[in-house]
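Hi there,

I know you've been waiting on this one. I reran it after we fixed the sequence typo, so this is the corrected version. Both the input and the resulting structure follow.
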Amino acid sequence: MSRLLYESSVSYKGYLIIPFVFGKANNYEIYSYRLLAEIGQKSQFHKAENPAQIYGSSISNIVDIAKEHIDQHLEFVSQGDSFKSRYIYRHNLIIVFQEGGKCFYDHYPPELLNNIAAPKLFTSEYECLNWIKQGLDGRHIRQRAR
C-alpha cells in the first residue's frame, strides 16, 4: 500500500474517509480507501480497508464509493464532526480533540493507521500542535543526519 492521502481525506457521518493509491494498471492509478470511525473500535469499520470492496479511478470516485457504503451500513448517528480539527504535517495526520478544557490528539504516520500519539494533555490546540510539530521536525532532522 502506498502512503495514505490524508490531505484528500473527507469527514462523513462520523467517519474519516482516507483515500490511497491501491495500484496501477496501464499507467492509470487505482484508488482504495481506509476508514476511521469517531466511535473507534466500537465500529466494525474502524481502520477498515475498503469495506465496500469496490475500487475507484479517482480520489473523488473512491470517496463517493465510500460514502455510499457508509450510507448503506450506518452503525451510529454522529453528533458532530469529530474530525474537523485535523491537520497534515509531513504527510502525518494529526487529529486534535478538546474535552473538559484540555486538548489531546491522535497521530497517524503516512503509511498506516496506527495511532502513535503520546499520552499527553495540553491547555490549547495551539500548544498541542506546536508540541507535535517540534517533535516531527526534531525526528525529521535526526533521520536526515543518519
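Quick highlight: The chain has a mean pLDDT of 91.

Best,
R. S.
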